[in-house]
Amino acid sequence: MVLLGFSWVDVIIGMLWVSLVVLVLVIAYKKLLRRLSKGDFKKEDYCVLENLEMDPVTGELPFYFTSEQERTVTLFLQDENMNDLMEIVTMECKVGGNIVRFDSSVLKNGTYFYCLKTNNQRICKKMNVLHST
After folding, report:
1. Which of 30, 57, 87, 95 shows its CA 20 to 30 Å from the CA of 39?
2. Whether this model's pTM surpasses 0.85
């Protein structure tokens, strides 16, 4: 018997291949979870960049991030196509919470990404700028 041009043997072999691929992906995912839970990922090695409290944004913005150790960080903006637009600040951050204030009036209305970069990470978050007309 033929189903849409494939024999039953072809269909069964195809289902076995799909099952094998899913099994390999599940095993890889479990290994990744095990690795992360063993402490290979150290929270203190990374900063946490918080979301902005308002959306859309206008006026002065407080970019807030935390760090569990002193390190050099760069905060910068990208346009909606993820092209670097401007550097806001490069600084030595302190342990705990850090706030960088930025006047969004220098930006046109639109979508932007604010990004934080250290020597081992880069994190970006989306913001929409909307100035009243």
Report:
1. 95
2. no
Neighbours of 47 (CB within 10 A): 19
Mention every residue, 6+ apart, whose C-beta is less than 8 A from residue 58: 104, 105, 129, 130, 131, 132
HSE-CB for 92 with a 13 A CA cutoff: 1
7 and 54 assigned to the same domain:
no
Q: What are phi and psi of 130, to 5 degrees?
A: -145, 105
Instruction: Report d(CA 29, CA 43) in Å as an integer.
Output: 20
- Using a 10 angstrom Cβ sphere, with 0-12 exposed, 13-18 middle and 19 or more buried, the burial of residue 92 is exposed
pLDDT in tens, 73-129: 999 999 999 999 999 999 999 999 999 999 999 999 999 999 999 999 999 999 999
> What is the tally of structural domains in the chain?
2
CATH number of the domain within which 70 lies: 2.60.40.1930
